[in-house]
Amino acid sequence: MTSVNEEQGKEAEAEGVSNPYVTFCKGCRIIIADSFTFLGFEDNLKMAIFYDKSDEILCGDELNLAKDGIDSGSTFKLLTCSVCKIEIGRIYNSTPQALDTIRDCYAFYNDMIDHYILGPSPEAASKYRYREQIMDTPTAHGLLVHTRKGLRHNTLYVNCMSV
Ligand SMILES: [Zn+2]
Questions:
Q1: Which superkingdom is the protein from (predicted)?
Q2: How far is Cα of residue 154 from the mean position of the Cα atoms in its chain?
């Protein structure tokens, strides 16, 4: 299992790791989004931006006004985890020009989420590649034929023994 925080996520990006990952709520670990809809990190707001979310994330009806910070003057609705009820992010309806790219996207607080990278770790991947080189990986058909031959051989052996 590989769990990464924001910094590790950025390191992985920098190293060209392209395995897909799921993002989950830190409070209850329910999956809230995945890398297929990830747009990037908004460093100044300390948020991870996605253009889609899971059904477990609820969007509030009330429009709020940001009164301080770099999103001051923005209007947004709160995103809440339906399982553990924590406030997990925002969806901005209006933003200053500098934040236009995140408007209408799902912006999750980095502190409230974590990620799980799918697939093998780099160490496991290198071991597996080595194993692939030394093993003749059978196809499903090849495996079936091999198994039947083995069964026939064993049956013959049992018959010989019982005579
Ligand atoms: Zn939750």
A1: Eukaryota
A2: 46
Cα-to-centroid distance, 57 and ligand 1 (Å): 9
> Structure tokens of 115?
């990620």
pTM of the shown model? 0.70
- What confidence tens digit (pLDDT) does each residue in 76-118 have? 999 999 999 999 999 999 999 999 999 999 999 999 999 999 9
Residue for token pair 């049956």 = 155
Q: Residue 6 belongs to what H/E stretch?
A: helix 6-14
How many Å lie between the centroid of ligand 1 and the Cα of residue 114? 11
**160 C-alpha to center of ligand 1: Å?**
64
Give distance in angstroms: CA of 61 to centre of ligand 1: 19
Tell me if residue 7 falls in helix, strand or coil. helix
Tokens 């005579």 label which residue?
163
- Provide the pLDDT for residue 127: 77
84 Cα to the center of ligand 1, angstroms: 4
**3-state DSSP call for residue 110?**
helix
**Contact criterion met (CB below 8 Å) for 119 and 19:** yes
Residue whose entry in the numeric block shows the structure tokens 């010989």: 160
